């Protein structure tokens, strides 16, 4: 996990994840420069889910250190963000002043709507980030992000074909009749949100990072906040056939034992995903999954 995904997550404090294979940063809470050090020069694109402090407060330090510390200071940074989020607009104005004072690289801002996609050039196969709507902020749209890789798969009618038959089928019918291109979700990140009702954006994800601030529906209801909970996260993983569920944005009101008990209760109701774990601060803590 640590060689693919580095991050920090604790509700109210900070949340961000650096996904190394695509060199992108999902959210930008405090602590990025401290944890990543020189690796900040790897970051090409930043995707902000919404403008709450715990998801954006690390961006000014990142922008500053990329300008001043030793490394490749020419690499541009693109910041993709939900259109219409007023807090991100203030941040952009603030960092715009900085930009006027001669940043050595290009810092650009790209408003997104749900359904928009952004290509990621760095990867071996075509990869893109797709934005989808989540319920968290009131009055403007928060976004979750799906990192997808383009793959060629056999069309359903040929799914049972033996590998050695495939060449002959293509020769006979043409490639397009036998093979189709799909966008496979490598990693899906919800940002902050109430439990998603539609499993479609999460279907078949290799890794899902999902808001699990609270233990269960009762605790969420009591809080009157717009966040997720552990029970709903396991339910979503089961409904969507997620391979590796990572609970994030955990509240520090809960000790490890309470988290483990909530996971066990949820697993009794919904089953365990093949792989399972959670982020607490900058640590990924693996838990027993169905495949272990
Ligand atoms: Zn928030
Ligand atoms: Zn948050």
Structure explained in plain terms:
The protein is of the alpha/beta class. It has a domain at 194-292: Ribonuclease Z/Hydroxyacylglutathione hydrolase-like (Metallo-beta-lactamase, Chain A), CATH 3.60.15.10. 28% of the residues lie in helices and 30% in strands. It is built from 9 helices and 14 strands. The protein has helices spanning 32-36, 53-56, 59-68, 86-100, 163-173, 175-178, 217-223, 230-240, 256-270; strands at residues 5-10, 14-19, 24-26, 45-47, 77-82, 107-112, 117-120, 127-134, 142-154, 179-189, 207-211, 244-248, 275-280, 283-287. The strands form 2 sheets. It has an 8-stranded mixed beta sheet with strand order 7-8-9-10-11-12-13-14. A 6-stranded mixed beta sheet has the order 1-2-3-4-5-6. Helix 8 (230-240) runs parallel beside helix 9. The longest helix is centred in the first third of the chain and has 15 residues, at 86-100. The protein is globular and about 60 Å long. The two termini are 15 Å apart. The mean pLDDT is 94. The site of one zinc ion has 4 residues, from loops.
